[in-house]
Amino acid sequence: MLAQQFQVNTNNVTVNGDESISTYQYHTQHVETTADGKVVIVPECKEYQFKTNNKVPRTGVMIVGLGGNNGTTLTAGVLANKLKLQWESKRGPETANYYGSLTQCATTYLGDDLNGKQVVAPFNALLPMVNPNDLVIGGWDISKANLYDATVRARVHEPTMYHQIEEQLKAIHPLPAVFDLSFVAPNQETRADNVLKGTKREVLDQVREQIRNFKKENNLEQVIILWSANTERYCEVTPGVHDTAANLLKAIDEGHPEISPSIIYAVASVLEGVPYINGSPQNTFVKGFIELAVQHHVPIMGDDFKTGQTKFKTVISDFLISSGLKLTAVASYNHLGNNDGLNLSFESCFRSKQISKASVIDDMVRLNPILYQEGEHPDHIVVIKYVPSVGDSKRALDEYDSDIFCGGKNIISVHNTCEDSLLAAPLMLDLVVLMELFTRVQIKSDGMKDFDSMHQVYSVLSFLLKAPQVPPGTPVINSLFQQRACLENILRACRGLQPLNHMHLEYKLPQ
Amino acid sequence: MLAQQFQVNTNNVTVNGDESISTYQYHTQHVETTADGKVVIVPECKEYQFKTNNKVPRTGVMIVGLGGNNGTTLTAGVLANKLKLQWESKRGPETANYYGSLTQCATTYLGDDLNGKQVVAPFNALLPMVNPNDLVIGGWDISKANLYDATVRARVHEPTMYHQIEEQLKAIHPLPAVFDLSFVAPNQETRADNVLKGTKREVLDQVREQIRNFKKENNLEQVIILWSANTERYCEVTPGVHDTAANLLKAIDEGHPEISPSIIYAVASVLEGVPYINGSPQNTFVKGFIELAVQHHVPIMGDDFKTGQTKFKTVISDFLISSGLKLTAVASYNHLGNNDGLNLSFESCFRSKQISKASVIDDMVRLNPILYQEGEHPDHIVVIKYVPSVGDSKRALDEYDSDIFCGGKNIISVHNTCEDSLLAAPLMLDLVVLMELFTRVQIKSDGMKDFDSMHQVYSVLSFLLKAPQVPPGTPVINSLFQQRACLENILRACRGLQPLNHMHLEYKLPQ
Amino acid sequence: MLAQQFQVNTNNVTVNGDESISTYQYHTQHVETTADGKVVIVPECKEYQFKTNNKVPRTGVMIVGLGGNNGTTLTAGVLANKLKLQWESKRGPETANYYGSLTQCATTYLGDDLNGKQVVAPFNALLPMVNPNDLVIGGWDISKANLYDATVRARVHEPTMYHQIEEQLKAIHPLPAVFDLSFVAPNQETRADNVLKGTKREVLDQVREQIRNFKKENNLEQVIILWSANTERYCEVTPGVHDTAANLLKAIDEGHPEISPSIIYAVASVLEGVPYINGSPQNTFVKGFIELAVQHHVPIMGDDFKTGQTKFKTVISDFLISSGLKLTAVASYNHLGNNDGLNLSFESCFRSKQISKASVIDDMVRLNPILYQEGEHPDHIVVIKYVPSVGDSKRALDEYDSDIFCGGKNIISVHNTCEDSLLAAPLMLDLVVLMELFTRVQIKSDGMKDFDSMHQVYSVLSFLLKAPQVPPGTPVINSLFQQRACLENILRACRGLQPLNHMHLEYKLPQ
Amino acid sequence: MLAQQFQVNTNNVTVNGDESISTYQYHTQHVETTADGKVVIVPECKEYQFKTNNKVPRTGVMIVGLGGNNGTTLTAGVLANKLKLQWESKRGPETANYYGSLTQCATTYLGDDLNGKQVVAPFNALLPMVNPNDLVIGGWDISKANLYDATVRARVHEPTMYHQIEEQLKAIHPLPAVFDLSFVAPNQETRADNVLKGTKREVLDQVREQIRNFKKENNLEQVIILWSANTERYCEVTPGVHDTAANLLKAIDEGHPEISPSIIYAVASVLEGVPYINGSPQNTFVKGFIELAVQHHVPIMGDDFKTGQTKFKTVISDFLISSGLKLTAVASYNHLGNNDGLNLSFESCFRSKQISKASVIDDMVRLNPILYQEGEHPDHIVVIKYVPSVGDSKRALDEYDSDIFCGGKNIISVHNTCEDSLLAAPLMLDLVVLMELFTRVQIKSDGMKDFDSMHQVYSVLSFLLKAPQVPPGTPVINSLFQQRACLENILRACRGLQPLNHMHLEYKLPQ
């Protein structure tokens, strides 16, 4: 059964106007080692409170790279959903949908009804979330093509779909964008006809003004900025430049060459109090930037949308290792022919990508010291190639090798044909929707005297990101199912519900 | 960090000699619908108690099909581990291990230490479990080949390994077995030179005696019986025969033709008070048999070891659907060349297998009514073929097709080369180890006046089975990660630990 | 260099009006065994003459199953080419083409020019062939949908393409068709609203009249009939019914139940002097039918278009075995969701298909008695499944296993995503074009007193067919490259050119 | 039927002692363009004579890289065959064989016998060839490990096999080898404990002496040298160094740094009159070297053994393009874990490999100007990665994308698991066997006054090489089937047999 809405019958939640406060017993544990070497688990139960503002604000999203494949796919897709479009394709009639979106198309288990039937709700019924159809969409692009022309160029949606929204798409013009050829592939220069001029500082100020204008013109209560532009090369992290918030701002003032365009957007975003999401793998979130975000109380999250091969990889690796099989090699090959691929054909941009893709199995390996000795890990290679003729149809070829019982071998080979941007767009929407939601959630633990936002690095969104950022000093979790559980259980906590434990004890009793 | 052992610092567990009792607050919820159609979740917290006997008994396992590929692989593999064997292979030196075993090679997360480092323990440190090296192994086979000859015939282990244990293996002779050609493929007859004679009733009595003898001769405190023989065709479930415990016993007395060999083993097992596991897909667990097991308080579990393709499938399907992608087709092709494949080349045996493999995605689909309308489900086909030349090296070719955002398609194609029996053997050991363990665990919920075993259908072991049996009237869960969470959280509960919630709230606070 | 046309400078060809006669020295050899067991090869050189009528007639094609996926794909595709259509698709602009057609898109090597550059010509420049754009297309279908509606139903071409030819397609109405539910899957009945009525004899007469009318109305000089309808089950070959031409005609008169619809079409075709091609695997070409075709001097050819997996298989198997590798297993799995798949989900229809696909590697195996002992052959399985959601996008998953040097193994796994009808249509056109061409070629060997057609079973077209028919008593060749060489060399012979020997001796001399 | 031996009943062959002379009518044609632009094919028939010395000499092979995986696999494999070894493996009993060898395990079609049965012969029955079992094997390695230790290190053969020939293998010690770290990966240095000392000239002289000694000590009539060592980086071709034979010798005298070890071996080989085969992709065969080989009348051939992925690729590409399908992309990914992989992980060595693999489809593309405009070609990428854990089990993942009829797409994805050295060894033997054979074949065409060897670049062996060398100014053929036809037809010519034309005209006549 699907419950579109639900109430929770609990005394732990109090409602006051738009606000609700949930008082929550959080069960956890820590581990101590005694003097004689014994390991002792110390269970703890701490009280937390979650304060949620249930009023969904009028929200906009500003995409860096609006005219790119992801940007156009998202924009046209949202319009198609809003207008409930239908269109013809080679495969028959199609209807707009949000397939691939956790918030819009996945469900969450609520419990069994009195007949023992399982009841679920849409994921977005857990707490009030913005409807993607209501998002105001804008942003920047280094190419001045309007969104219709950019959609045609992208070769992602069906012509029979986008012809129906030609007028609306033509009306959207990307704002002039920050551009610095030293951070992207030389081949990107030909696209760059819509570029902000001036010193780094002047450019930063212009971006801030663009954000303010977008908010004002569209009468928005909240804006989220989403980097979906080209993967930049890593900026060279430099003491005195990237290490503190103050140095970072000073370096911008001084036009330091290792201040990348993405840092300028991210800083502008924070200074305008607008949450910022990094959908590419480059190291925008240098130490000084995170400090700046914390200082300004502005949430940020990254890096790199977790869409296809990597998402799959975290699932398979988790499955194998958590079954006690010794994964010995992961070889991941990709090719694609869109502009992302073209840019990644440039070695230093690819390097950023490679780094973000490479570490995703590290935590699973580290957490099984039975299979892996200290320092031992599976061979792991990642290759991305530019193959123009496949366009946006990304191909991933993976091989997973494992050692099994007593000398046996297991070889899993996977070929994945996917449309890169059609996987990314719903995930970008999830990031916007959930990022906005969590700006309305405050937390108060035992030791805190007042409610506060969660740490500005919103690691609760790890499910959606390849190389999830975490607050300094905290462990990274790459297991997709654990990431999902984390998100689901925190949303449940806001509603006064205990985490899902999957135990179903009631069905295990003698009858 | 790996903790080989750990203690729990809690007042909720009391220890009394070998017994410990954990008092546990079980959080769950049910769903009600109000008169005006509103869905209300009602959280509940019930107290449960778990009583665990921590003394591991001297345990034996009797395998039906001891001389088959699974049986020999397990037996030789356990010997190799016990003797810490090393051997040469084409790929270099190999060492005995239990890779692929959840209990022996997977870890469980305990908590973070005071430096924020994650601490894990071997899964089998959660509660005292029998060490596979200590199992006494015996059983039945329709072929009288000793275990050495059977190991050579199986072509699974390396000759350089089994030559080292030739003597030990030669000393093991399978007991004469129940055989009824009408339940397996005609091609099995040539193997059948070690068969019990007599009426069904006489055969049942002989099996019971074999069990008693095995226990006595080996001085065992506990025995587990594991069906790992040929997949039988479904017995034709007949009112008056299979519907009640009494009728079932009567039908055996009368020699009814639809009493399959597996039913005879299972009944003998229950009548001897010995837990029974069905590792093949046939319908041994007819209604009358379950009634019998409940009456005699003997735990049972099945059906069909979840090793390769199906395990993978539940992971991939779960991943896709829980990400909001609409899985539209699953095509699963297999071929193998061992005796299992030969037997499955017989249509009616294959039918049993097909049924057990077919339903594994049903619950995931049913629980997402956003993607799937009532009655709608992905196309799903399962094919198994006998290809002698590949031997025990099973090949699985799968395709997963999904509808993605706005008309997009995703095609995942998987080729899996695996050694069938080398995946199965550690899983069989897990079943034995965990089955034995749970016979030492008793439960007492709010409404019960005394401790009792869990329901005799041990659904807590679902993780290990393709078509997990559940107590009558309870939902089947096929999601591998949920099945693992269930098992892990129940074991934690016995130790006084709350379920893992993956929330890591302490790392989400402002710093 | 591409030569669109070429002349041959030779005295061996004489031209007389539209006719040319080539005198040709055919080198071959036979093998004898001497009394003392020695094998002796006896080279022979025989003179052949080929008489070609170079005037291309106005040609029509009548497709049985015109409204099916192949029929509509071909019809709309030819129209698109004729009108030089362009259209938009998701992947960008598309242009009509004949990709996949040997005659239209492949080249043939002519020789090197005086600078040592290789010169090629289009395959269809070898002899005058009908241009597919000039074909008049008609035929039968059990569904009365006009070709536009049928094209929409097929879901093969882009809507943006077929909308441009809506009018032309709507004007094409399939003729009422022969239908006998006992020969196809029961699920086909719902489509059957356009069916000829009457006894088998009456139906035969109506078909003959339809052929005559088609020819007359379209003012055609030649017609080719192409069976592209559902795979029928094998008719049960019966003495006195299918064994002689006379019996076959008598059985039709008597309405014998084992006279299939395809036999009726084929007999009608022959009686009208119209060449007949069987594009499905069923046994239309029973002995009596071949006798009838020979009696009436009407060319026929079949069975089963060789498009995807099987074509690939003959290439891979040929490659492996001719490299000295021992192919040990071929496992071929397919699924598709078009009406062909639906019909093949019926066991007895599938059986026909399976037979045609199964024998394709037999000749290669038999011709390597070093690798394969007498009677030994690779394991070979073929599975076809109906998976509605994939539509016309056929998926083939194949595995090829080989034994290599000294105990090594090679496993090749292939996943092929293809559009079934888009591969078939150009091949159907090739069959029509080449069938028509060879009706204009006559042959005269040493022993013949006058020119005559080749044997009516046109085995020269084997390249295009999965289970190529051959004249009684002659060997079947499945090697794709040998089949292509056969066709190419015979066409060359008609032009007075010796076969390609690939020796390039001139480049191997000392310089 | 298999004929182990055969005679040819012809007057075109005369025998004189060990020599036979075949007089052969070679049919070919060239293409001219007339003044008015017409293309004219001019057939030609030239007389050639082939003189074959039918006495097989006592032959040795010296392998550069004897202790590497290829070298040890070949050596142990030949011993196993010679001794008719049998051994046990995981998969059952194994027997020595030459699977994968064209000369030993492939057949050639002779003709039909009088009953219409096809008769074949082993490929090596076409002309007298050395039996691999009779080869004396020796060579160089930079590691001094004896062949037994090297075989163990290689992890290719089964221990149960090589233990049987431990003594024989231990007796083989590689000669000290030429080593220059600047040409291979730095990681190779650790292996290098068996290295020739001195200037390049001194080293050259030592190698020449080693060759003479090998010949003398083993009483050999013929020696073939085979480079099977690490892929070197390309030497930087320099005017005045690599351009003429004289300069090359001078550069060696002067110790020029761009004289690679492989050039030293090749020059030594030529100066000793010993044929040289280059099994790796580097540019050993610089212009000056080819001149030297021609001057000294010493046959040479290369480059790069065509074993796995590339061989497959030439077959698939040929198949697709010659069927009229437009291949648009080929993505080839490989990984392996042997020392070849380790060396190739060094960028400049990989570059050599990449070049040799990249051009293999160029000729097929160029020869179809219908599908490909001038300058257009498929996207083609080649990636090789080092993944230690897979060892010698090389994995190739390929994707072939094609445009098909009217906008359709075909995607073929291939996963190939293979043992690298087990594919290479039989092919190396073929090269030795055929190279030796062709040194006994002389040719005389119309214009020549006396018999002479073929051009020293033995392009007739192209079938076995990835980037086949050809005499200057002659076209490269990569089509595997054409390469095979070339070889087969030249061998037939030596026996007085016309080329195979696959026409089977006798079966196409009216009956």
TrEMBL record, chains A, B, C, D:
One of its GO terms (cellular component) is cytoplasm. It comes from the Eukaryota. Residues 308-421 form the Myo-inositol-1-phosphate synthase GAPDH-like domain. It is found in: Cytoplasm. InterPro entries: Myo-inos-1-P_Synthase (IPR002587), Myo-inos-1-P_Synthase_GAPDH (IPR013021), NAD(P)-bd_dom_sf (IPR036291). Its EC number is 5.5.1.4. Pathway: Polyol metabolism; myo-inositol biosynthesis; myo-inositol from D-glucose 6-phosphate: step 1/2. One of its GO terms (biological process) is phospholipid biosynthetic process. Its cofactor is NAD(+). It catalyses: D-glucose 6-phosphate = 1D-myo-inositol 3-phosphate. GO terms for molecular function: inositol-3-phosphate synthase activity. Keywords: Cytoplasm, Inositol biosynthesis, Isomerase, Lipid biosynthesis, Lipid metabolism, NAD, Phospholipid biosynthesis, Phospholipid metabolism. Belongs to the myo-inositol 1-phosphate synthase family. Homotetramer. This is Inositol-3-phosphate synthase. It comes from Tritrichomonas foetus. The lineage of its organism: Eukaryota, Metamonada, Parabasalia, Tritrichomonadida, Tritrichomonadidae.
